[in-house]
Structures are given as C-alpha cells and as structure tokens.
Amino acid sequence: MEFIQQNIWTVLLAAVSGLMLVMPSFRRLGGIKQIGPQEAVLLMNHEDALVLDVREQSEFVDGHIAKAKHVPLGALAKRLDELEKYKDKPIIAVCRSGSRSGMACRTLRRAGFEKLHNLDGGMIAWDRAGLPKERK
C-alpha cells in the first residue's frame, strides 16, 4: 500500500496503459470484427465478400471501393430486404472513418446477419493504404 501511495502516478499510468491495450478487444464484441484494408481485400477476393458502403450519396460518388453496394446508413433499416441474399456471405461495412459502418454492423446483427466486418478507419484507411477507388 505504501508503494502505491508513493508511486500513484506510475500506478495510474500503468492502469491506463493496460486499459488501452484491452480496449480493441471490446470493439469486437457481438461478432463484429474490425478489419484493415488488406484483410478486406482478402475477404473480397477469396470469400466473395459484399462491400456495403453506408456513406451519403455525395461521398459515394466522390470515390468508393469497386463493386460496393451503396445503402446510406439512414436508409439501411428500410432497405434490409435488398441485403437478404447476402445473409450467409461475409459483409464488409464501409464509411468514411469506421463509425457509421460500425452502427450499420449493429443494425445488420439485429436483423440476423452474422458474418460482419467493419473496415477499421473506413475510406480514410483505404486511401492511406493506396488501394484503388472507382467513381460513378
């Protein structure tokens, strides 16, 4: 106890560091896996994963992953029937940074989809990895 009192800042720093190390594990709860751009490409090429882009129309036309299906997050709940045929396939949800696509994954999970992946860092990470985009 005396050690903790004398080294409170060191102990707090160690506790915060440990918490930061385990936080990414909590993000995977619910079967929604966070993946990087390279893992997304592997899923697309080897498991025929659907890329679901949940950004707004203006963002989508500015550049998106090839063959991505565009369903803005705000319309996702109403358009779940369009995705029914992909229920047994891997789905990679994509947005600008990974936030909206995480929400999309939770919506899909509640609708019974199981093979869900969130592109961690979204299109920002995709661009940083130097991967191609198409424009329509």
Q: Write the H/E string, N to C.
A: HHEHEHEHHEHEH
Reported CATH architecture: 3-Layer(aba) Sandwich
Strand content: 5-15%
Q: Largest sheet at a glance?
A: 5 strands, parallel
Trace the largest sheet across and list its strands.
Answer: 1-5-4-2-3
Number of strands: 5
Q: Mean pLDDT across all residues, rounded?
A: 90
Could you please say which CATH topology applies here? Oxidized Rhodanese, domain 1
Unreliable spans: none
The backbone outline, from C-alpha atoms, is elongated
Spatial separation of the terminal alpha carbons: 64 Å
What is the domain tally? Answer: 1
Percentage of residues in helical conformation: 40-55%
Please identify the top-level CATH class. Alpha Beta
**Measured on Cα atoms, how large is the radius of gyration?**
18 Å
User: How many DSSP helices?
Assistant: 8
Structural class: alpha/beta
Let me know the CATH homologous superfamily: Rhodanese-like domain
Commentary on this structure:
The protein is α/β, with parallel strands linked by helices. It has a single domain, classed as Oxidized Rhodanese, domain 1 (3-Layer(aba) Sandwich), CATH 3.40.250. 51% of the residues lie in helices and 13% in strands. The chain contains eight helices and five strands, in the order ααβαβαβααβαβα. A five-stranded parallel β-sheet has the order 1-5-4-2-3. Strand 4, helix 7 and strand 5 form a beta-alpha-beta unit. The longest helix is centred in the first third of the chain and has 20 residues. The chain is elongated and about 65 Å long. The model has no long low-confidence stretch (mean pLDDT 90).
